[in-house]
Amino acid sequence: MKAENEQALNFIKPHTGLAKMTRRELLKRSAAIGGSLIVGTGFIAGSSASWAMELKSLSPDTMATLVQMARDIYPHDSMGDEIYAAAVKGHDDKAAEDADFKAMLEAGVESLNAAAKQMGHASYLDTGWEAERTEILKSIESDTFFQTMRGGLVVGLYNQEAVWAALGYEGSSYEKGGYLNRGFDDIKWL
Amino acid sequence: MTAPFDVNDDSVVVIIGTGAGGGTLANELAQKGIDVVALEAGGRHLPKDYINNEWPSFSQLAWTDMRTTSGSWRVAKDFPNLPAWIVKAVGGSTVHWAGASLRLQDHEFRALSTYGALEGANLLDWPVTLAELEPYYDKAEKKMGVTRTNGIPGLPGNNNFKVMKAGADKMGYKECHTGRMAINSEPRDDRASCQQLGFCFQGCKMGAKWSTAYSDIPKGEATGHLEVRENSLVLKIEHNADGKVDGVVYQDKDGNQVKQKARAVCVAGNSIESPRMLLNSASSMFPDGLANSSGQVGKNYMRHMTGSVYAAFEKPVHMYRGTTMAGIITDEGRHDPSRGFVGGYEMETLSIGIPFMAAFLNPGGWGREFASAMDNYQNMAGMWLVGEDMPQESNAITLSEEKDHTGMPAANVHFDDHPNDIAMRNHAYKQGMALYDSVGATQTYPTPPYPSTHNLGTLRMSEKASDGVVNGFGQSHDINNLFVSDGSQFTTGGAENPTLTIVTLAIRQADYIAKQMSEKSI
Ligand SMILES: Cc1cc2nc3c(=O)[nH]c(=O)nc-3n(C[C@H](O)[C@H](O)[C@H](O)COP(=O)(O)OP(=O)(O)OC[C@H]3O[C@@H](n4cnc5c(N)ncnc54)[C@H](O)[C@@H]3O)c2cc1C
Ligand code: SF4
């Protein structure tokens, strides 16, 4: 738990340089656009260029697939891709240090793409409807790859303060004097 | 003033664990002038150190040493190495308990007589009655500052309580209020009043909630008769040629093994570690472990029938604001077999933050249904269901194949629900969901039990030495200077949260130990 937790807290870091690029500059450096993501050499970015993430080990295509998979596992339509990217960034860090782990992730992404092809799509990322992607995920639900992704997201996604804010959880309250004078009993609609 | 005692001082009483049972007993004995060495596996964390953030707080306080699980309970699958969610720190689980402080009911001390024999259940009457405990319950409530006792006003109700209360009224429940809580509704005992922080499970940064960590233990230390040695993990209890215990071996903060001699030993490591210690102390004289002539050491493990119901509404509730356990309905606490089960259960508000909700709402769950529940978080209300579960001999703490970091066999926790537990849980889910539906819930989420927070019964009290491990004072039937001072003593579980009763028994046990010492019986 401890390692996961620390991992979770380390997820969101400023991604220097890249984040400041304009969309045009980003596109110049990018190799392909996958879904709502821009995929370039050694990085992925949001298509609006509002954020970008440098990769240590995983290929941008692999990472883009993991980001999509993360969203499909816990789909929150009000949350941007940067939140999901941050939630799986720890896997890239770990892959840089652990070749077996990296191979497991890459094989997992391969299996997603293979399943997508059987459905007549070019890749998992090219599978348009969530229902079909969910069907693919269901078919690998008991695999280590899926369980590693899902288990990691429980902390990696839901321990992000940005997620708390999006879901309406206010977090630490001691330094604000608790909720005694901040609405602990303010319910009106009952 | 702390009292440094020598490890060879064999006049001291050694207490293992400083939680509800051990911490209380340590102070009560010290107040009587009896010298005590309390050994605590965890470190000392005080209100200023507590963290208003669920996972970092968990890392700071929770017991994460090796444990294993078996049996058909879902925890064994979802959290195989986290059977229980309890604390390893000075103060034990009173650091992050919620504070609900209820007396057991009269008939619950006579479970076998009241419910009759139930197939598969190892029911037994307690060797003590409510009437015998009442004076000690009074003392415990006063010590802990329980609201709605001793003229202490109840806490104000938060949003989560208001939803519960509105539903209780619709359901025709009569007994719904903001609880009997060991949380200051006004400043008392040098502790502040509750500021409604909403992080009771992470340690109360206001110190408003009673905890042995910052109430009983410093008071005991101030007498000069109590020394608390933190980061001291007891490995085994040793005995002499007469079969009396004469000390304990522990691993100190530097990793050295040390023997502390003792006149008497009181075990209070919570109901998983206490039997583990007795089993790990097996010797040629006691090959099945200490105090185990009945074969009941580690058996009859109870965790209360539990479950939660969360519900989503059209508009915000913000259940996390304010006391975690902010109210209670006691109407279902009665014994009424017409509901299809024996014993009863309580309904108590509960809230957990986003990080824990993600882990506990439906462990292993994913997809749009799960995410949509999380999307509803700010519109959620929640309650915990807690009732009497059946003691079963096969539900047991045994020594695992796995070892902990010291090389000692870890505890394995085996648990299967009894049919009575399942019938009660289903009833409780139904009532909880109906309550929220009655005030306009748009979704309800019957949530499975968390890793155990109430661990009971593994060294139980019994009239006869053949039925249990200790007598009505927590004294071993086999070894008269060995005591059990925590929730392991419970003969049966009752429906109520156990801590008030653990504290009550510890206060009473202190009187008994003092008497036995002055009579030179021990
Ligand atoms: C989240 C949560 C909420 C709760 N809310 C409530 C509530 O509202 N009301 C209620 O009545 N109860 C509540 N409880 C339960 C309550 O905390 C426990 O019932 C009570 O603290 C148990 O007391 P104990 O003395 O048996 O053990 P604990 O308080 O757990 O103390 C045991 C101590 O022994 C130490 N120890 C164990 N093994 C060793 C060893 N080998 N050597 C040295 N030290 C050792 C541990 O580190 C620990 O500090 C809650 C529990 C949790 C986890
Ligand atoms: S809500 Fe009250 S009791 Fe709970 S942590 Fe805050 S101040 Fe303490």
Please, could you describe this protein's structure?
The complex is a heterodimer of chains A (190) and B (522). By secondary structure, chain A is an alpha+beta fold. Chain A is built from eight helices and four strands. In chain A, strand 3 and strand 4 (52-54) form a beta hairpin. The longest helix of chain A has 20 residues, at 99-118. In chain A, 39% of the residues are buried. Chain B is built from twelve helices and 17 strands. In chain B, the strands form four sheets. Chain B has a six-stranded antiparallel sheet with strand order 4-11-12-13-10-16, with helices on one face. In chain B, strands 5-2-1-9-17 form a five-stranded parallel sheet. In chain B, strands 3-15-14 form a three-stranded mixed sheet. Chain B is globular, with a radius of gyration of 22 Å. The interface between A and B is large, with 41 and 50 residues. Bound molecules: flavin-adenine dinucleotide and iron/sulfur cluster.
